[in-house]
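From the pipeline queue, job 12 of 40. The input is one protein chain; the requested action is below.

Action: predict structure.
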Amino acid sequence: MNPEMKSVLSELIAELEVLRLKTNSLVGHVDGSHPDARQITEATGFIQDAIKSLQKIGFGLESETSYDD
């Protein structure tokens, strides 16, 4: 895989972390009983799951093995 992809992946993860923090901060501004609070909480969880998935990809970028075949 292209070595530049590791930096692209790191940048994407950092951007998602900022987005996760922003969505998480919204929860404090919405009444907990409002449906939007649940939606924001779910969205924050989805973003966190995406971050975890992308972090796993990062280990593959360091591998000497090519899976392009």
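Job complete. Residues 35-61 form the longest helix (27 residues).
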